Amino acid sequence: MPSRRRKRRREIKHVPRSEATLPEFDRGAVPERLVTRRQLRDMGLSPGGHGPVAVLRCKACSYRPDQACIHPTRAWLYSLELTRPKRVPTLAQEQALDRAMAARSTCPQCRRRYYFCLPLRTQGVCDPCDKGYEPSPDTYMAFTAPVAHRLAA
Hints:
The chain has three helices and eight strands, in the order ββαββββαβαβ. It has helices at residues 37-43, 91-105, 127-131; strands at 24-25, 34-35, 45-46, 54-56, 75-79, 84-85, 113-114, 140-141.
């Protein structure tokens, strides 16, 4: 019977907090003028080309106020004064995106447009054409009449 391999413990890296880095805030202690990226998205705003101004520490680091948070669960905080409204794509940009997605989701053999991207680089065609079966009708778009455009807006 082979011997069990012991897992090596991950080394804990302690980084002391310094004044040179961004200010860090614990959850619940963030000023109202600072928001996360997700909160910006919900408000219809974008960072406006500016970087983060502070760090939202993870829950585990709230017990260690003298150390910097280096965990991947930390979040960047952005200032509301520097934000801008989200840009709205033009109709031409939406048409270009729709054409690009149509090229990725349309089978060149059966001409069906699926709701997902096809493995065209590796397989070249959709799975039903490659394996020889009839696809489920809820996986592709069935167009009965010609449509002027199929854009989201």
